[in-house]
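>> Question from a student workshop board

For tomorrow's exercise we were told to take the sequence and the ligand below, predict the bound structure, and bring the output to class. My setup keeps failing. Could a helper post the expected result so I can at least see what it should look like? The ligand is glyoxylic acid.
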Amino acid sequence: MNEITKPAGKQASAAVNEQRLWQRHVDMAKFGATPKGGVNRQALSAEDIKARALFAEWVAKRGFELFVDEIGNLFVRRPGTDPNAAPVLSGSHMDSQPTGGRFDGIYGVLAAFEALEAIDDAGIKTKRPLEAAAWTNEEGARFAPGCMGSLVYTKPDRLQQMLQVKDAQGTVLKDALAATTAALPKAKKRAFATPVDCFIEAHIEQGPILEAEKKTIGVVTGIQGSRRFKIEVIGQDDHAGTTPRARRKDALSAAVHIVAGLEKLFHWDKEDVTRFTVGRFVVEPNAPSVVPGYVWFTIDFRDPRLEILDKLGDQVEGICQANARKCEVKVTQTNRTPPIGFKGLVADAVLAATQRLGYPHMHIFSGAGHDAQHLFNICPTGMIFVPCERGISHNEIENAAPADLAAGARVLADVMVDLANR
Ligand code: GLV
Ligand code: MN
Ligand code: MN
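>> Workshop helper replied:
Here is what the output should look like for this input. Compare the format with yours to find the bug.
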């Protein structure tokens, strides 16, 4: 047995409180609650600010310190016995999609906080400090790109560029961020360069596999890669009644042909592994009697194979130009994240703790993106998945069972102790 597979003395997992963890989900789901039972808590919105403020209250009540960095990432710290050691960090995000669920992201933040509380309740000392993180703007629905907080934390030179990003209403991220941090007056400032010993993210699976296989825990083996693009089609506004076909520069018509061309490219594999989504489509001026002069839309392309990401992604520009008809097309790649594999320290610790606790489990690859993709670049990283109902996510009806959420938090608590005391 190595250090990690050895059973921990006192079990942090035994102190995980299922009811407390569930109640925190219920309390957080009030911020941005939608009529269909989901949440709309987009990054740095009034709802996100209120959720952060409540989180800060819980942290203060518990007597833990709270830190905030220049992109608004939050860190809750439970000190270790070695004052010079880097922390074992766990967390996820508090923001949601516009029609998001009550568990995507927030579960990983609350599970990490529950782990810290449980470890505290159990009176366990750790050599390394333990921290729970809430990364800013993982979803990227309001301000693009997503995973912004974890990206900037791991690549601080991107901060200035991100501060200038605008949402659809023209709000500059820097201003939304200032309002957010102003609502957290007690949080201490933290520099980006603060080292991390290792990172573990707990998350609902957001897919159907664990439920179908009747497994409680997914030991995550990696995350597929993604490339995202913004496509702008520039035509000309014209009168719908008077402009003959031959004179039109109809941006919508061109955009529809471009999307059809892209579908041919991306719907190539019988195995149905490649994912291609046009999730946002904006038409201007969007008036019934005006030939549309401007369209922009997004491409979200994902694949676990780097060579496919490169090969298909590199053809996007050509297909857009070939189908542009009389319009001008501008193609901007907004994000490129290669696939990653989780092996070694953290993945081994997750598997060992899961086995010790006796939960039905399996290895699983992530189709969704996560902040762990960026932390992976700076420290040993891994993830824990728990099932969600019918695999439905990015949907207001997203659901998860309190017992499964608690099981993931128990694994996480033991893993954090094991890694902090190794
Ligand atoms: C994360 O929310 C993703 O879109 O994968
Ligand atoms: Mn998420
Ligand atoms: Mn999400």
